[in-house]
Structure to design on (339 residues):
């Protein structure tokens, strides 16, 4: 994802001289070409993310479109005060890019894990939060955010889902992408972990369970209409994110459904539970260790589907017990109602 972003930003910078990239003393191998080609549009501020954000705000208020670039939670948590009070409060055109979403840098431990960032950044006023799931979404979103005023948090991942875009597909800000369709359940994923959701859908399909897969590349604003459609049209919803379940994608989806009066057949959140990661390893290893892989998603869907089927069966039986004998013939048998 990182390389796709830098390539697209390089193309953009050639067209838009007001675009500028600031880095906090990293990404030399990746950013060297950009820096050499556009020396007046590049600045390495050193290991000083707070200063980088303040500088970005000032440049943006002078008419620049600024991208700040760092890894893990460094461009967000380390300089949260400056993001809130400088960039957000002034509505500055600052795009905050992290290249280590989730546990991308799993081998270096919890200090480098970006696992609370979605919750924190979506809570800030007047922010946009984008979390692309594949390379096409990265490239499209990079261009899309250019003329979108205000602060955008752009969360990139080491992993990426397989290509799924159609040749004529148009990127739609604030709208989910339907990767697969089905009526038994819906998987809503944000970020590179979309690949695990796609793999889970393939496994479920082999088990006779057809699921809808939605890529939620824009976490804020949320595509409420598509989420409510999924709650009405499919058996249940499972959200998938490489992030704590508190305040992230799962929380946003649950809030939207409940506030709109939606009632999915079942609801589950795949994400990190309380506590910091106490183990280190590759991103894939940590996904498996913490129940964020395709197999864990399959278990959540099958468990939810069974619970929903039992609930429907129980409600139908209870309804039959309360019907007059003359009406029982018109009531559907429990087996049919639970299918």
């Amino acid at each position: 994802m990182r390389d796709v972003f830098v390539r697209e930003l390089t193309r953009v910078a050639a067209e838009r001289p007001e675009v500028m990239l600031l880095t906090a003393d990293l990404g030399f191998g990746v950013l060297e070409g950009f820096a050499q080609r556009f020396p007046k549009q590049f600045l390495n501020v050193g290991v000083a993310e707070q200063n980088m954000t303040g500088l970005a705000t000032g440049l943006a208020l002078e008419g620049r479109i600024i991208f700040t670039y760092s890894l893990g939670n460094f461009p967000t948590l380390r300089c949260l005060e400056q993001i809130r009070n400088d960039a957000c409060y002034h509505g500055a055109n600052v795009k905050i890019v992290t290249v280590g979403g989730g546990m991308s840098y799993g081998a270096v431990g919890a200090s480098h894990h970006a696992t609370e960032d979605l919750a924190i950044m979506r809570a800030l006023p007047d922010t946009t939060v984008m979390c692309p799931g594949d390379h096409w979404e990265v490239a499209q979103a990079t261009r899309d955010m250019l003329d979108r005023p205000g602060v955008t948090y752009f969360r990139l991942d080491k992993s990426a889902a397989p290509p799924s875009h159609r040749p004529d597909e148009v990127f739609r800000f604030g709208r989910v992408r339907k990767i697969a369709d089905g009526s038994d359940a819906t998987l809503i994923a944000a970020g590179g972990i979309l690949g695990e959701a796609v793999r889970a859908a393939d496994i479920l399909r082999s088990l006779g369970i057809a699921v809808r897969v939605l890529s939620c590349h824009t976490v804020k604003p949320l595509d409420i209409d598509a989420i409510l459609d999924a709650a009405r049209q499919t058996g249940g919803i499972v959200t998938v994110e490489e992030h704590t379940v508190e305040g992230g994608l799962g929380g946003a989806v649950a809030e939207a459904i409940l506030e709109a009066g939606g009632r999915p057949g079942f609801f589950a959140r795949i994400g990190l539970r309380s506590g910091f990661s106490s183990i280190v390893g590759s991103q894939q290893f940590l996904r498996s260790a913490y129940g964020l892989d395709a197999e864990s998603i399959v278990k959540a869907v099958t468990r939810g589907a069974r619970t929903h089927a039992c609930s429907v069966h129980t409600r139908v039986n209870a309804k039959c017990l309360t019907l007059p004998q003359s009406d029982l013939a018109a009531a559907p048998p429990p087996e049919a109602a639970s299918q």
Summary: The radius of gyration is 22 Å. The first helix runs from residue 2 to 15. The chain is about 40% helix and 15% strand. Confidence is low (pLDDT under 50) at residues 312-339.
